[in-house]
Write a structure and sequence with these properties.
Length: 49
């Protein structure tokens, strides 16, 4: 079973997000973390309804 990984960074540059996703993470969020955005990223990774 693969463990989903969400990268979190203070950087908001699109190149940084692309770099993280290219490295194999499943999702990316920039700080400050919005609770709803975090849940929206977690739900499909854990296959929640």
């Amino acid at each position: 079973m693969a463990v989903p990984i969400i990268a979190v960074s203070a950087s908001t540059f699109s190149q940084d997000e692309e770099r993280y996703l290219a490295s194999g993470v499943n999702a990316f969020l920039s700080k400050p973390i919005d609770h709803d955005s975090l849940l929206a990223k977690i739900a499909p990774l854990l296959q929640l309804p």
